[in-house]
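Data deposition worksheet. Section B asks for the primary sequence of the deposited chain exactly as it was used as input, without tags or linkers unless they were present during the calculation. Section C holds the resulting structure in token form. Section D is free text for depositor observations; keep each observation to a single sentence. Incomplete worksheets are returned to the depositor.
Section A, Depositor: J.P.
Section B:
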Amino acid sequence: MPNSNPKKQKKKVKANKSNNLKEFGQIEIPDAPNNVHCITIVGQIEGHMVMPPQNKTTKYEHIIPQLVALEQNPNIEGVLIVLNTVGGDVEAGLAIAEMLTSMSKATVSLVLGGGHSIGVPIAVASDYSFIAETATMTIHPIRLTGLVIGVPQTYEYLDKMQERVVGFVCKHSTIRPERFRELMFRTGELARDIGTILVGKDAVNEGLINEVGGIGQAVMKVNELIQNRTMMNSMGGH
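Section C:
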């Protein structure tokens, strides 16, 4: 016999909501059809190495399947990517960025707080990008932690990986490779590192990000891109 006790059903629903809040930081909102999906990339981007439990991480094995599912879902027409990340694994970040730029859906990115290091390629991988006025982006050379074998091949590998990042960023933004490398190797901008911090408008002026804005502008832009694609598809169908 099915459980017809309304009190138990209410407790079960309440428990599910509590679990969503605890595990995913999500609260129940009115269920309405939505053609835009939001993906958040926060903390450190975790790649092949598992980070310590005290680190807030975004795992690439969670993001990539989501992007595949979104690409296959005909009901989803746009994707909003919200970034507040310190960076992380280079190859994992590039994998996410490559998937975003190859999606057929309308994509818009929004940098809140920070979109540092390998977060830069992810931010520029979308069709249109926003950055909050007080958000920052740190551009610096590729670094490795842990045991590094001091042989020429190691430095060649690092150089090639760095060229992958530079090439991707410059291909999907308007910044010139020479300027990007200049910002990457600039000294004196940071107390304990080398590189450059770009704040809000600076990232726009350098050609990395399209516009300074917030969540309202980002959502409006996604809907605008969806409408433009729908019009183009309808015109192409005649």
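Section D:
The longest helix spans residues 215-236.
The first strand starts at residue 36 and ends at 46.
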